[in-house]
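Fold these two proteins, one after the other.
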Amino acid sequence: EAEAYSVYVSGTDVYASGYESNGTNYIAKVWKNGVATNLTDGTADAQAYSVFVSGSDVYVAGYEFNGTNLVAKVWKNGVAVTLGSGATYSEAYSVVVSGTDVYITGYENNGTNDVAKLWKNGIATSLTDGTVAASALAVYVHNNDVYVAGNEGNFAKFWKNGVATSLTNGVNSSTARAIFVR
């Protein structure tokens, strides 16, 4: 069993990120032109949700299980950087690079609810207050403005530079999963 979540094209190279099962656990992977590279060793579940290429650097966002919780991570050229504390669940869903800044979105649980997070160069900012479950599923940078898509409770939302805008009325559960600005 294998699944790819994200595709990125850089020149003539095609990158995809996802996972492949080793029969026991999921191994986070990135494929370049169909050739797989393992990001994890398969001793614990891990998945790679998003891939972004900047120059010769390949960034992948996802999670790895630490024995107790899923932990948000970003891999740069195969080297993992832990984003979540590991004390509670966290996942990284999207990564984008703008200049020298690396932006990653996801969530980290506060013990009660998932809190939508934006990590810039590894430093977390909460987009929500944690009173209801929320998640940040996509990030895009345009003209130095940072746009994030996700949800807070039943509301699909986007954030521009941390300021939220509801896209729905909250009557039904909804989520924004992608964002692009032109």
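Now the second one:
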Amino acid sequence: MNVRNIDITTSPLSPDRTRVRADEICDDTALPPEEYWIDVTSVFSDRLNTSGNAWLVLLLPLAVTLGESLTIDKAVDRELLINLHELMHVWRLWYNLKPVRIEVEVQDHHIQPSSGATAALFSGGVDAWFTLLTHNDGRKEADSFSIDDLLCIWGLDVRLAKADEFRAL
């Protein structure tokens, strides 16, 4: 599977929207080429880029399901690539899907401390506590940051009909 021609344009749906798009061609010639795109209001257009990151995340599940290697003609972040290799091993254990080769240019992208506050989603579960405790443990590693606020959204983990459970959380 090849992803190419990544670009940013004005959306044909509306002049106040911006589109980031890419072409995808499968190795299996029985599958037609596809165009994938994501539109955002133009207010957020400065946050779009032509890196391969979004396309790697979007199309890796399809590539693994089809058993095709994934080639992207734009650079991706090293940490993302490392984490997606780990995710493919999880998929192998959970779904018996074999990891595929990912062919991309790797870009080192160092996390810069934010000038604003950092929030984390918090459900009260094991993963939420792990995130909170590992990022607020006092260590000052290069990829470490402190969490200032916890965001708990009623309706995601606790149904809206269960107000008492949400209050307890």
